[in-house]
Specification:
The protein is of the alpha/beta class and 387 residues long. It contains 10 helices and 15 strands. It has a 6-stranded mixed sheet, with helices on one face. Strand 5 and strand 6 form a beta hairpin. Bound molecules: manganese (II) ion.
Length: 387
Protein backbone atom coordinates (compact mmCIF):
# COMPACT_ATOMS: atom_id res chain seq x y z
CA UNK A 1 0.00 0.00 0.00
CA UNK A 2 1.35 3.42 -0.95
CA UNK A 3 -0.07 6.66 0.48
CA UNK A 4 0.37 9.98 -1.30
CA UNK A 5 -1.22 13.39 -1.78
CA UNK A 6 -2.25 14.98 -5.08
CA UNK A 7 -2.87 18.68 -5.65
CA UNK A 8 -2.78 21.03 -8.59
CA UNK A 9 -3.33 24.48 -10.10
CA UNK A 10 -2.01 26.54 -7.21
CA UNK A 11 -1.38 29.57 -9.49
CA UNK A 12 1.01 31.23 -7.04
CA UNK A 13 1.42 34.91 -7.86
CA UNK A 14 -2.08 35.37 -9.22
CA UNK A 15 -3.62 38.64 -8.06
CA UNK A 16 -7.37 38.43 -8.65
CA UNK A 17 -9.11 41.76 -9.30
CA UNK A 18 -5.66 43.25 -8.77
CA UNK A 19 -6.17 43.02 -5.00
CA UNK A 20 -3.15 42.33 -2.81
CA UNK A 21 -5.24 40.22 -0.41
CA UNK A 22 -6.23 37.91 -3.26
CA UNK A 23 -2.58 37.27 -4.06
CA UNK A 24 -2.10 36.52 -0.35
CA UNK A 25 -5.06 34.14 -0.40
CA UNK A 26 -3.42 31.95 -3.02
CA UNK A 27 -0.26 31.74 -0.87
CA UNK A 28 -2.34 30.95 2.20
CA UNK A 29 -4.30 28.10 0.61
CA UNK A 30 -1.04 26.74 -0.82
CA UNK A 31 0.50 26.63 2.64
CA UNK A 32 -2.60 25.16 4.23
CA UNK A 33 -2.41 22.40 1.62
CA UNK A 34 1.26 21.71 2.35
CA UNK A 35 0.70 21.72 6.13
CA UNK A 36 -2.24 19.35 5.86
CA UNK A 37 -0.28 17.05 3.54
CA UNK A 38 2.54 16.87 6.09
CA UNK A 39 0.07 15.97 8.86
CA UNK A 40 -1.23 13.10 6.74
CA UNK A 41 2.19 11.41 6.73
CA UNK A 42 2.27 10.67 3.02
CA UNK A 43 5.21 9.18 1.19
CA UNK A 44 5.24 11.68 -1.64
CA UNK A 45 3.23 14.43 -3.26
CA UNK A 46 2.10 14.98 -6.85
CA UNK A 47 1.47 18.46 -8.27
CA UNK A 48 -0.18 18.37 -11.70
CA UNK A 49 0.84 21.74 -13.09
CA UNK A 50 0.17 25.48 -12.98
CA UNK A 51 2.22 25.78 -9.82
CA UNK A 52 2.73 29.45 -10.70
CA UNK A 53 0.46 31.88 -12.45
CA UNK A 54 3.19 33.27 -14.67
CA UNK A 55 5.88 31.78 -16.83
CA UNK A 56 8.32 34.12 -15.12
CA UNK A 57 6.91 34.14 -11.59
CA UNK A 58 7.30 37.12 -9.32
CA UNK A 59 9.83 36.82 -6.53
CA UNK A 60 7.09 36.72 -3.85
CA UNK A 61 5.56 33.67 -5.54
CA UNK A 62 8.95 31.94 -5.84
CA UNK A 63 9.65 32.58 -2.15
CA UNK A 64 6.29 31.18 -1.04
CA UNK A 65 6.85 28.08 -3.16
CA UNK A 66 10.32 27.71 -1.68
CA UNK A 67 8.93 27.94 1.88
CA UNK A 68 6.41 25.22 1.07
CA UNK A 69 8.96 22.90 -0.54
CA UNK A 70 11.39 23.34 2.35
CA UNK A 71 8.64 22.24 4.75
CA UNK A 72 8.09 19.13 2.64
CA UNK A 73 11.80 18.44 2.40
CA UNK A 74 12.18 18.75 6.20
CA UNK A 75 9.57 16.02 6.46
CA UNK A 76 11.28 13.87 3.83
CA UNK A 77 8.38 14.17 1.40
CA UNK A 78 9.47 14.37 -2.25
CA UNK A 79 7.23 16.14 -4.75
CA UNK A 80 6.71 15.10 -8.37
CA UNK A 81 5.34 17.69 -10.75
CA UNK A 82 4.63 18.43 -14.41
CA UNK A 83 4.53 21.77 -16.23
CA UNK A 84 1.13 23.26 -16.97
CA UNK A 85 -0.08 25.51 -19.76
CA UNK A 86 0.97 28.61 -17.86
CA UNK A 87 4.54 28.02 -18.83
CA UNK A 88 4.29 26.20 -22.07
CA UNK A 89 7.41 26.62 -24.06
CA UNK A 90 8.94 23.94 -26.17
CA UNK A 91 11.90 26.01 -27.24
CA UNK A 92 15.29 24.53 -26.62
CA UNK A 93 16.98 26.09 -23.61
CA UNK A 94 13.74 27.23 -22.00
CA UNK A 95 14.07 26.92 -18.24
CA UNK A 96 11.18 26.06 -15.97
CA UNK A 97 11.01 28.04 -12.71
CA UNK A 98 10.45 24.71 -10.93
CA UNK A 99 14.12 23.95 -11.49
CA UNK A 100 14.92 26.34 -8.65
CA UNK A 101 13.54 23.75 -6.25
CA UNK A 102 15.35 20.61 -7.38
CA UNK A 103 17.46 20.71 -4.20
CA UNK A 104 14.31 20.78 -2.12
CA UNK A 105 13.17 17.40 -3.31
CA UNK A 106 11.12 18.52 -6.29
CA UNK A 107 11.27 16.34 -9.36
CA UNK A 108 10.02 17.44 -12.75
CA UNK A 109 8.39 14.78 -14.91
CA UNK A 110 7.80 15.33 -18.59
CA UNK A 111 11.08 17.03 -19.42
CA UNK A 112 14.11 14.86 -20.07
CA UNK A 113 12.81 12.38 -17.54
CA UNK A 114 9.27 11.20 -18.02
CA UNK A 115 8.95 8.76 -15.15
CA UNK A 116 10.30 7.63 -11.81
CA UNK A 117 10.15 4.21 -10.25
CA UNK A 118 9.70 3.59 -6.56
CA UNK A 119 11.00 0.06 -6.27
CA UNK A 120 9.77 -0.58 -2.73
CA UNK A 121 6.20 -0.16 -3.97
CA UNK A 122 6.68 -1.64 -7.44
CA UNK A 123 5.38 1.77 -8.50
CA UNK A 124 5.70 3.66 -11.77
CA UNK A 125 4.95 7.40 -11.85
CA UNK A 126 4.89 8.78 -15.39
CA UNK A 127 4.20 12.38 -16.34
CA UNK A 128 4.14 14.71 -19.34
CA UNK A 129 4.19 18.50 -19.66
CA UNK A 130 1.14 20.21 -21.07
CA UNK A 131 0.82 20.12 -24.86
CA UNK A 132 -1.66 22.24 -26.81
CA UNK A 133 -4.23 20.61 -29.03
CA UNK A 134 -2.07 21.31 -32.05
CA UNK A 135 0.40 18.71 -30.76
CA UNK A 136 -2.20 16.11 -29.80
CA UNK A 137 -0.64 13.48 -32.07
CA UNK A 138 2.71 13.90 -30.31
CA UNK A 139 0.89 13.67 -27.02
CA UNK A 140 -0.74 10.39 -28.01
CA UNK A 141 2.62 8.89 -29.05
CA UNK A 142 4.18 9.93 -25.74
CA UNK A 143 1.26 8.47 -23.79
CA UNK A 144 1.56 5.21 -25.66
CA UNK A 145 5.25 4.95 -24.74
CA UNK A 146 4.61 5.67 -21.07
CA UNK A 147 1.78 3.19 -20.99
CA UNK A 148 4.05 0.43 -22.33
CA UNK A 149 6.79 1.21 -19.80
CA UNK A 150 4.28 1.26 -16.95
CA UNK A 151 3.14 -2.26 -17.75
CA UNK A 152 6.17 -3.74 -16.01
CA UNK A 153 4.99 -2.47 -12.63
CA UNK A 154 2.18 -3.36 -10.31
CA UNK A 155 1.18 0.20 -9.35
CA UNK A 156 0.93 2.82 -12.09
CA UNK A 157 0.31 6.55 -11.81
CA UNK A 158 0.00 8.96 -14.74
CA UNK A 159 0.44 12.72 -14.18
CA UNK A 160 -0.98 15.06 -16.82
CA UNK A 161 -1.97 18.68 -17.20
CA UNK A 162 -4.54 18.45 -19.97
CA UNK A 163 -8.18 19.12 -20.66
CA UNK A 164 -10.36 16.16 -21.62
CA UNK A 165 -13.39 16.39 -23.92
CA UNK A 166 -15.55 15.04 -21.12
CA UNK A 167 -14.65 17.92 -18.80
CA UNK A 168 -14.07 20.90 -21.06
CA UNK A 169 -16.76 20.29 -23.66
CA UNK A 170 -18.09 23.84 -24.13
CA UNK A 171 -14.92 25.80 -24.34
CA UNK A 172 -13.68 23.49 -27.06
CA UNK A 173 -10.47 23.79 -25.17
CA UNK A 174 -9.67 20.14 -24.63
CA UNK A 175 -6.55 18.61 -26.12
CA UNK A 176 -7.39 14.97 -25.60
CA UNK A 177 -10.41 12.73 -25.70
CA UNK A 178 -10.98 10.54 -22.68
CA UNK A 179 -10.92 7.49 -24.94
CA UNK A 180 -7.40 8.42 -26.09
CA UNK A 181 -6.00 7.99 -22.60
CA UNK A 182 -4.24 4.65 -22.04
CA UNK A 183 -6.28 2.43 -19.77
CA UNK A 184 -3.64 0.57 -17.78
CA UNK A 185 -2.93 3.16 -15.05
CA UNK A 186 -4.40 2.95 -11.54
CA UNK A 187 -4.43 6.63 -10.75
CA UNK A 188 -4.67 9.48 -13.26
CA UNK A 189 -3.36 12.57 -11.46
CA UNK A 190 -4.83 15.32 -13.59
CA UNK A 191 -4.46 19.08 -13.59
CA UNK A 192 -5.89 21.95 -15.67
CA UNK A 193 -9.60 21.70 -14.93
CA UNK A 194 -10.16 23.72 -11.76
CA UNK A 195 -13.20 21.75 -10.59
CA UNK A 196 -12.96 18.73 -8.31
CA UNK A 197 -13.52 15.53 -10.26
CA UNK A 198 -13.19 11.88 -9.30
CA UNK A 199 -14.31 9.13 -11.65
CA UNK A 200 -13.54 5.55 -12.53
CA UNK A 201 -11.27 5.05 -15.53
CA UNK A 202 -9.06 2.24 -16.79
CA UNK A 203 -7.50 0.33 -13.93
CA UNK A 204 -8.60 2.81 -11.28
CA UNK A 205 -9.54 6.44 -10.89
CA UNK A 206 -9.11 9.65 -12.84
CA UNK A 207 -8.98 12.71 -10.61
CA UNK A 208 -8.78 16.45 -11.00
CA UNK A 209 -8.28 17.84 -7.48
CA UNK A 210 -9.04 21.29 -8.93
CA UNK A 211 -7.36 24.55 -8.03
CA UNK A 212 -6.56 25.35 -4.41
CA UNK A 213 -8.33 28.70 -4.60
CA UNK A 214 -11.06 30.29 -6.70
CA UNK A 215 -9.16 31.42 -9.76
CA UNK A 216 -12.14 32.34 -11.88
CA UNK A 217 -15.67 33.16 -10.75
CA UNK A 218 -17.14 30.23 -12.70
CA UNK A 219 -15.53 27.94 -10.11
CA UNK A 220 -17.80 29.25 -7.36
CA UNK A 221 -20.58 26.69 -7.84
CA UNK A 222 -18.18 23.77 -7.69
CA UNK A 223 -16.50 25.32 -4.68
CA UNK A 224 -19.85 25.67 -2.90
CA UNK A 225 -20.70 22.03 -3.56
CA UNK A 226 -17.32 20.46 -3.04
CA UNK A 227 -14.94 23.00 -1.43
CA UNK A 228 -11.35 23.47 -2.55
CA UNK A 229 -8.64 21.07 -1.46
CA UNK A 230 -6.50 18.11 -2.39
CA UNK A 231 -6.67 14.34 -2.69
CA UNK A 232 -5.29 11.87 -0.24
CA UNK A 233 -4.74 8.53 -1.97
CA UNK A 234 -4.09 5.04 -0.67
CA UNK A 235 -3.14 2.84 -3.58
CA UNK A 236 -2.53 -0.87 -3.91
CA UNK A 237 -2.90 -1.81 -7.58
CA UNK A 238 -6.66 -1.72 -8.24
CA UNK A 239 -7.52 -1.31 -4.60
CA UNK A 240 -7.72 2.48 -4.30
CA UNK A 241 -9.05 4.75 -1.64
CA UNK A 242 -9.33 8.47 -2.36
CA UNK A 243 -10.20 11.00 0.29
CA UNK A 244 -11.03 14.62 -0.45
CA UNK A 245 -9.35 16.87 2.07
CA UNK A 246 -10.96 20.32 2.28
CA UNK A 247 -9.22 23.61 2.95
CA UNK A 248 -10.51 26.06 5.52
CA UNK A 249 -8.72 29.24 4.51
CA UNK A 250 -10.43 29.67 1.15
CA UNK A 251 -12.08 33.09 0.98
CA UNK A 252 -15.84 32.85 0.40
CA UNK A 253 -17.59 34.11 -2.69
CA UNK A 254 -21.25 35.10 -2.42
CA UNK A 255 -23.70 35.71 -5.22
CA UNK A 256 -26.70 37.95 -4.59
CA UNK A 257 -29.56 39.19 -6.74
CA UNK A 258 -31.46 42.38 -6.05
CA UNK A 259 -34.84 43.44 -7.34
CA UNK A 260 -34.92 47.22 -7.81
CA UNK A 261 -38.47 47.39 -6.44
CA UNK A 262 -37.33 46.00 -3.09
CA UNK A 263 -33.77 47.32 -3.02
CA UNK A 264 -33.73 48.69 0.52
CA UNK A 265 -35.28 45.65 2.12
CA UNK A 266 -33.06 43.25 0.23
CA UNK A 267 -29.88 45.19 0.96
CA UNK A 268 -30.73 45.04 4.66
CA UNK A 269 -31.15 41.29 4.38
CA UNK A 270 -27.75 40.89 2.67
CA UNK A 271 -26.06 43.16 5.19
CA UNK A 272 -27.30 40.89 7.95
CA UNK A 273 -26.10 37.84 6.09
CA UNK A 274 -22.65 39.36 5.63
CA UNK A 275 -22.31 40.55 9.21
CA UNK A 276 -21.29 37.10 10.44
CA UNK A 277 -17.97 37.37 8.60
CA UNK A 278 -16.88 40.29 10.78
CA UNK A 279 -18.48 38.85 13.90
CA UNK A 280 -16.60 35.58 13.51
CA UNK A 281 -13.39 37.28 12.36
CA UNK A 282 -13.51 35.48 9.03
CA UNK A 283 -11.90 36.79 5.86
CA UNK A 284 -14.30 39.26 4.25
CA UNK A 285 -16.03 37.68 1.26
CA UNK A 286 -16.14 38.64 -2.39
CA UNK A 287 -19.65 39.41 -3.54
CA UNK A 288 -21.17 39.38 -6.99
CA UNK A 289 -24.34 41.41 -6.97
CA UNK A 290 -26.81 41.42 -9.83
CA UNK A 291 -29.51 44.08 -9.96
CA UNK A 292 -32.66 43.30 -11.86
CA UNK A 293 -36.01 44.90 -12.44
CA UNK A 294 -37.49 48.22 -13.42
CA UNK A 295 -35.06 51.13 -13.32
CA UNK A 296 -36.78 54.17 -11.82
CA UNK A 297 -33.44 55.90 -11.25
CA UNK A 298 -30.18 55.89 -13.15
CA UNK A 299 -27.45 53.32 -12.57
CA UNK A 300 -25.45 55.63 -10.27
CA UNK A 301 -28.30 55.68 -7.79
CA UNK A 302 -28.34 51.90 -7.47
CA UNK A 303 -24.55 51.70 -7.49
CA UNK A 304 -24.38 54.12 -4.55
CA UNK A 305 -26.95 52.19 -2.56
CA UNK A 306 -25.00 48.99 -3.03
CA UNK A 307 -21.72 50.70 -2.23
CA UNK A 308 -23.02 52.01 1.08
CA UNK A 309 -24.33 48.62 2.05
CA UNK A 310 -21.46 46.37 0.93
CA UNK A 311 -18.26 48.39 1.03
CA UNK A 312 -17.32 47.63 4.63
CA UNK A 313 -18.64 44.09 4.67
CA UNK A 314 -16.76 42.75 1.66
CA UNK A 315 -13.21 42.59 0.42
CA UNK A 316 -14.48 43.37 -3.04
CA UNK A 317 -17.82 43.41 -4.74
CA UNK A 318 -18.74 43.32 -8.36
CA UNK A 319 -21.95 44.92 -9.44
CA UNK A 320 -23.88 43.96 -12.53
CA UNK A 321 -26.97 45.82 -13.55
CA UNK A 322 -29.09 43.87 -16.00
CA UNK A 323 -32.08 45.24 -17.81
CA UNK A 324 -34.78 42.67 -18.33
CA UNK A 325 -34.98 43.15 -22.08
CA UNK A 326 -31.25 42.69 -22.64
CA UNK A 327 -31.22 39.58 -20.52
CA UNK A 328 -33.86 37.81 -22.58
CA UNK A 329 -31.95 38.62 -25.78
CA UNK A 330 -28.83 37.04 -24.35
CA UNK A 331 -30.74 33.93 -23.37
CA UNK A 332 -31.80 33.45 -26.95
CA UNK A 333 -28.24 33.53 -28.26
CA UNK A 334 -27.03 30.12 -29.27
CA UNK A 335 -24.02 28.76 -27.46
CA UNK A 336 -21.32 27.60 -29.81
CA UNK A 337 -17.99 26.01 -29.21
CA UNK A 338 -14.84 27.33 -30.77
CA UNK A 339 -13.85 24.10 -32.45
CA UNK A 340 -17.27 23.66 -33.99
CA UNK A 341 -17.07 27.13 -35.51
CA UNK A 342 -13.56 26.48 -36.78
CA UNK A 343 -14.57 23.11 -38.20
CA UNK A 344 -17.27 24.87 -40.17
CA UNK A 345 -14.92 27.58 -41.45
CA UNK A 346 -12.17 25.12 -42.40
CA UNK A 347 -14.53 22.46 -43.70
CA UNK A 348 -13.32 19.97 -41.10
CA UNK A 349 -9.64 20.15 -42.02
CA UNK A 350 -8.43 18.96 -38.63
CA UNK A 351 -4.90 20.33 -38.92
CA UNK A 352 -6.17 23.87 -39.51
CA UNK A 353 -8.80 23.59 -36.81
CA UNK A 354 -6.25 22.42 -34.25
CA UNK A 355 -3.72 25.04 -35.35
CA UNK A 356 -6.16 27.93 -35.05
CA UNK A 357 -7.70 26.79 -31.79
CA UNK A 358 -4.29 26.21 -30.17
CA UNK A 359 -3.17 29.64 -31.32
CA UNK A 360 -6.35 31.16 -29.95
CA UNK A 361 -5.93 29.45 -26.58
CA UNK A 362 -2.32 30.59 -26.25
CA UNK A 363 -3.19 34.17 -27.17
CA UNK A 364 -6.14 34.21 -24.79
CA UNK A 365 -3.71 33.33 -22.03
CA UNK A 366 -1.36 36.07 -23.30
CA UNK A 367 1.27 33.47 -23.95
CA UNK A 368 3.02 35.04 -26.94
CA UNK A 369 5.96 32.66 -26.87
CA UNK A 370 3.68 29.65 -26.96
CA UNK A 371 1.72 31.14 -29.85
CA UNK A 372 4.92 31.95 -31.74
CA UNK A 373 6.20 28.42 -31.34
CA UNK A 374 3.01 26.90 -32.65
CA UNK A 375 2.94 29.31 -35.60
CA UNK A 376 6.59 28.69 -36.54
CA UNK A 377 6.16 24.96 -36.25
CA UNK A 378 3.04 25.05 -38.40
CA UNK A 379 4.64 26.99 -41.24
CA UNK A 380 7.84 24.95 -41.15
CA UNK A 381 5.87 21.76 -41.48
CA UNK A 382 3.76 22.97 -44.39
CA UNK A 383 6.11 25.08 -46.46
CA UNK A 384 9.80 24.96 -47.17
CA UNK A 385 11.67 28.07 -46.27
CA UNK A 386 12.83 29.63 -49.56
CA UNK A 387 15.26 32.19 -48.25
MN1 LIG B 1 -4.80 26.13 -14.05
Amino acid sequence: MVRFAHFSDTHLGYRQYNIEEREGDFYETFHETIDKIIKEKVEFVIHSGDLFEHKRPKVEALLEAQKGFIKLKNNNIPIYCVAGNHYLTLRKGAVLPQRLFLDQGLKILGGKEKYVILKNHDLFIGGLSFLPRYYSNQLKVKLEKLSKKANNYKNKILVLHQGLDTHLPYEGAFELRLTELPRNFNYYAMGHVHRRIKERYGGGFLCYPGSTDIWRSDEVDDYKNKSKGFNLVNLDNEDINIEWINLETTRRFEEFTLQTEKIEMELEKYKEMLAHYTQNKLKLPIVRMTIQGEMKFDNTYYANQVKQALEDLTLFYKLEITHKEIKSEIEEMKTANLNEILAEIYENKTELVDFTSSLFTQLKERNLEGATEIAEDFFQKRWKNDN
